[in-house]
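2024-03-11 09:14:02 INFO worker-7 job=invfold-0412 stage=load source=structure_tokens
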């Protein structure tokens, strides 16, 4: 019998953000695996880890938004740290993608390395290898991932704006004003 992995993995955050972007409590693992470019077993294991950590409800369908927000705000950058790398072609992330790009003016772009990308910027390793392609298919998901990356690599202002946007998207802003 396989021992259950209890430590979080980066793809757990990817799955949780995708569930939020879908706004569908009836999602199924097979279509989710296809949308994220993961295997069905990876989705199943991620669901088990997320339930174990309290980031997913016991039914495995609903993200515990307040717990996820607390983790993203206070622990994410320590558990999944990232430093911008060399300039590469890719897909915009962090402050270089919506919604932060409308609020922050920067001469440096951050991107997920991707051969078909149209922007050159400092490379940020995505949380999972299939993230760039999955993000291109779902703009709401792309924005959530970019906001999460702003928490990993951003300066104080980017982090503050990312927290504000994430709380709004998670419908938590009225609880924290």
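2024-03-11 09:14:09 INFO worker-7 stage=emit residues=177
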């Amino acid at each position: 019998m396989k021992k259950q992995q209890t430590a979080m993995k980066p793809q757990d955050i990817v799955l949780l953000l995708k569930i939020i972007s879908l706004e569908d409590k009836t999602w199924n693992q097979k279509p989710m695996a296809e949308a994220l470019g993961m295997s069905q077993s990876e989705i199943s294991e991620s669901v088990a880890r997320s339930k174990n950590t309290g980031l997913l409800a016991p039914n495995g369908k609903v993200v515990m938004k307040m717990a996820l927000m607390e983790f993203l705000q206070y622990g994410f950058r320590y558990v999944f740290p990232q430093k911008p790398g060399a300039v590469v072609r890719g897909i915009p992330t962090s402050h270089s993608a919506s919604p932060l790009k409308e609020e922050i003016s920067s001469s440096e772009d951050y991107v997920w390395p991707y051969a078909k990308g149209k922007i050159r910027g400092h490379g940020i390793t995505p949380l999972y290898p299939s993230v760039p392609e999955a993000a291109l298919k779902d703009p709401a998901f792309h924005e959530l991932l970019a906001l999460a990356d702003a928490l990993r690599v951003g300066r104080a202002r980017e982090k503050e704006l990312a927290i504000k946007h994430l709380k709004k998207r998670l419908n938590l802003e009225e609880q924290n004003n």
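2024-03-11 09:14:09 INFO worker-7 stage=report msg="The beta strands are 87-92, 110-113, 119-123."
2024-03-11 09:14:10 INFO worker-7 job finished
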